[in-house]
Amino acid sequence: MKYTIWLMFLLSVLPNKPQPFSPEERVQGYAVNGEQVFFVFDPDQYGVSPERVVVTGAFRAWDQEMEDPNWNLTFSDGVWQLKKDKTELGPGVPFKFRINEGEWMDPPTKAVNRAGGNLVLLPDAPRESFTAELRNEKVIWANIIGDRPLNKSAYRLKDAQGNAIPIANVLPNTSSQTLIATSEPLDMARVYFLEIPAQGLKTACSFESWFQTLYSDKPLGANLVGDRTIVRIFAPRAKKVQVYLYRGRGDSTPFRTADLIKDEQGVWEFIFGENLHGIYYDFTVHGVPDPGNHFYETQPIHITDPYARVSDNTWGKARIWEKTTPAQPLANGIPAMEDVIAYEVHVQDFTDQLPVAPELKGTFTAMVTPGLTNRKGEKIGFDYLLELGINTVHLMPVQEYLHYPDEDWRASFEDDPYMISQGVNEENYQWGYRTSHAFAVESKYRTQGMEPGSEREEFRDLVQAFHDQNIAVIIDIVPNHTAENMDGNEWFFNFNVLDKLYYYRTKDFKHIGAYGNEVKTENRPMVQRWLIDQCKHFIEEFGIDGFRIDLAGQIDQQTLKALREAIGEDKIVYGEAWIGSNDPNYEANPDWDWYKEDSPITFFQDDARNAFKGPVFELKDKQKDRGWPGGNFGERDKVMLGLLNGFPEEKTPLNGINYLDIHDNFALADQFGTNDFDGRLGVDENLYKIATTLLFTSLGPIVLHGGSEIMRSKGAAPLEEVLKETVTGYKIYMHGKRDTYNHRLANQFVWEQVGQRPSRSSPNNYRDMHAFWKGMIAFRNSEYGRLFRLADAAPEGYYQWITPPRDPALLGYIVNGQICVLLNAGNVVAAFQDIPLPEGNWKLIANVEEVNMEEGVRDEREVMTLIGGNEPDVIMPAESLYIWVRESGEEEGQR
Question: Which of 120, 208, 393, 495 has a 20 to 30 Å separation from 359 between CA atoms?
Fold first, then answer.
């Protein structure tokens, strides 16, 4: 008896899939046995030996939690595996494996179910066997896979309150598509459920067919036209919309209320016969209390205009405002994409420690205030950026974004030791990836004490200040998700009330998305227009020069193509490709879903980043986690691909934009930290400079993380997860230095480090690192640097590689016969032999000590000049770099 019980227990816990898994299953990442799915991670397919493997995907809303035992795989018989029921997952959903502390694993290139940078579970299985759509007031279009009755008595149609609607007829179109005709008119704004009782099937009738036909080109928002003010808002299923006017920002009683009139395309409008500039306004939106609706009848609140030019913080009223006169364009035009050296920077981080008046801290005005110096007399702030040499400022989000209310925040955390240590006990600091009003400028960035609306002119003045110095300005937009669903909270600022089912991707009337929600641009012309309109707005009213698009992989390919066409090909546009949608229908449609190989915009090239300086999700082993420069010498071939922009999906150097670090994840100084991956305690500076050299000698555009040139560290944020809660119940997630989006002190520019030499209290040579980066920027901007600034694919042999086979720590390359770069990432002296330099004099312009384009560098080993044509040898000190440029010879005229 005991034996039988023990055997039954073993059978219940052991996988019931025959071992081993087939080669196909190991590549595709899953196996199926009846109603069970086995996630399969074969380390050999990925070339890793992980200590832990976790699977995440749309089935768990791309949850990034690594400790959840429900999604941790177990190692057995050479593979990692996890058994799940099919019903828990669903067909056609994307997934991905993560290892150790969270490193994402790109799918094997030979996986046939690879799509959009993910693996896809059961890609060929039917997704839904029973769906229905409202087509018009008398017709529902149903899709029934399997046994389909044609007798109208087999169907039931009810509204959300359970009232039956008689069916007049059922007619087949294809083997699955079926017309359901009703005997009485349907209300297109209502939710209906279609049932086949005998089969136990029930589905909500979606609005897809109707929604994708709604379009209007009427200007939305509150617009001043002569002596009139025209207010318009799009809410296709609302029954009534009212606008309320207030004279003061704190007024609770409106001085005027008006009912808007709806047109056939769902746009509500009212025309006031006067200029209402400066007047505050909000709306109530009314409708039936069906599932998925949040109209006034179920959420009795006022909302603000998603097209508002001014929002008094996210929580306040909107304000009617005249159009802003844009900055004058760049005198020499926007930099061509191949010439872009972008500098990503957050307004508050950049200005918090500047020596400006208290009311200017954290503002646009502070960012462009000239004449500032630190205590050493070094230029900081605006003048610092001008001297750095970059040609594009990339501002992290400046559209109005969500901060938790200050009063609530202070009541919650004013005396909290952890929050005090992070500088966030009195305000909810944020990077801004939670837009609430895409046409408004962030309120917190205006001069303190100024009235709402003045931030628009201050932002325009910032753009003008950079334009006057021939520097382009681009902004980071966040159209993929909005502020209404963040940190597990749900609010009703605009879209959630106007029509959640129109504006967002949903399932069973609920939001989907790894970041709270996903804005639905496909099949939604007015959402597509909203994205394009906000970009045109910032161009036409501020004069900006382009955009970085957050999580662009969640914006459908056709919308991004339309955006590029609408704003002009001269604008700078790049974004993130790697995270797709949680909607299987989106992911399964090749016209919507995209990844690097069919990207409609320039994408962040994470493959080059990983090779140049290591992955971003864990820092444990210096030899493995810092790319080729840090000791992972098996990455040398990938470094070469990164330099050439030659990964399979890159047809030209403009397909991907190379970078080392960016606001997400660990700072470069921490990744190359000498002690516990904390850059404040010391940085392996020579290796840091080798990684820098790789970036600056790669083809195409590049983007720099602001502050990396002075080894800015996030070490002030502990590497731990901390969960806080406000007095009103809002959850606050603090992720530490791997993701410092709400840690204020860890992100600040420490301006006193500019010009600082090593000391007992601070071992870093901030002065020399800053000078090195300035020199590399000058090199890339020079005539020699044109060799890297290519728009078209480099011809065969453009990079002539020097790869000593016995020493993978060495890498050399001669670029178009004009530039020679030699790198030794190893910790011992090594030699390059018989370097095939073309004839001519080769001037040394860079080593780990300095970059000097004009006079050259006199290295202590006296290798200042080489003579080409005689294949010289070069001895390389440990952790060293050399860059020569060809001064004379037959090919000099090519420079």
Answer: 393
Q: Is 653 helix (H, G, I), strand (E, B) or coil?
A: coil
What the block records as the tokens of 243 is: 């606008």
CA nearest neighbour of 816 among 845, 846, 844, 785: 785
Q: Give CA–CA dist 321/541, Å, rounded.
A: 12
Specify the higher pLDDT residue, 674 or 862.
674
CA dist 869 and 683 (Å) reads: 38
Alpha-carbon gap, residue 382 to 388, rounded angstroms: 10
> Bridge-partner residues for 80, per DSSP?
41, 75
Whether 823 and 810 have beta carbons less than 8 Å apart is answered as: yes
pLDDT score for 4: 41
Residues 557-582 have pLDDT tens digits of 999 999 999 999 999 999 999 888 98
Strand order in the sheet with 267-272: 221-225, 228-234, 267-272, 261-262
Residue 20: asked if its preceding bond is cis (omega within 30°), the reply is yes
| Beta carbons of 358 and 414 less than 8 angstroms apart | no
Q: Would you call 455 helix, strand, or coil by DSSP? A: helix
Contact, 572 vs 563, CB < 8 A? no
Coil, strand or helix at 128: coil
- The pTM of the whole model exceeds 0.90: yes
- How many CB atoms are closer than 10 A to CB 255? 11
Phi, psi of 734 (to 5 degrees): -110, 115
Determine the Cα–Cα distance for residues 179 and 563; give it in Å rounded to an integer: 36
User: What separation in angstroms does the CA of 33 have from each of 15, 26, 30, 83, 729?
Assistant: 10, 14, 10, 10, 44
Neighbours of 790 (CB within 10 A): 19
Note whether 438 and 350 are within 8 A (CB).
no
* Residues whose CB is less than 8 angstroms from the CB of residue 861 and which lie 6 or more positions away in sequence, other chains included: 875, 877
Is residue 842 within 8 Å of residue 874, measured between CB atoms?
Answer: no
Which of 471, 522, 517, 472 minimizes the C-alpha distance to 494? Answer: 517
Give the C-alpha separation, 381 to 366, whole Å.
8
Mean pLDDT of the chain: 93
Q: Give the angle subtended at the CA of 739 by the CAs of 733 and 742, to the nearest 5°.
A: 55
Q: Phi first, then psi: give them for residue 561, nearest 5 degrees.
A: -65, -45
Nearest by Cα to 873 from 838, 830, 841 = 830
- Reading the block at residue 273, the tokens are 């016969």
Q: Which residues fall within 8 angstroms of residue 91, CB to CB, at 6 or more apart?
A: 121, 122, 123, 125, 126, 127, 584
Residue 667 corresponds to which tokens in the numbers above? Answer: 């700072």
* Cα separations in angstroms, 651 against 186, 391, 576, 647: 51, 25, 18, 8
Q: Do the beta carbons of residue 302 and residue 284 sit within 8 Å?
A: yes
37 and 84 Cβ atoms separated by less than 8 Å: yes
Higher pLDDT, 789 or 729: 789
d(CA 403, CA 387): 34
Cα–Cα distance for residue pair 626/640, rounded to 1 Å: 16
Residue 171 bridge partners (DSSP): 179
CB of 821 within 8 A of CB of 881?
yes
- Give the span between the Cα atoms of 628 and 891, in whole angstroms: 32
Question: In the structure encoding, which two tokens stand for residue 582, read together?
Answer: 């949680």
Residue type, 394: H
* Separation of alpha carbons 684 and 690, rounded Å: 10
Give the residue from 550, 549, 482 showing the smallest Cα distance to 516: 482
Q: Give the three-state DSSP class for 440.
A: strand
| Phi and psi torsions of 504, nearest 5° | -120, 155
Would you state the pLDDT for residue 895? Answer: 36
Q: Encode 622-652: b = buried (16+ Cβ within 10 Å), e = exposed.
A: bebbbbbbbbbbebbebbbbbbbbbbebbeb
Mean pLDDT of 234-244: 98
Q: Which residues are 228's β-sheet partners?
A: 225
At 98, is the secondary structure helix, strand, or coil?
strand
Provide the 8-state DSSP code for 467. Answer: H
DSSP 13: H
| 219 Cβ contact list (under 8 Å, min separation 6) | 230, 232
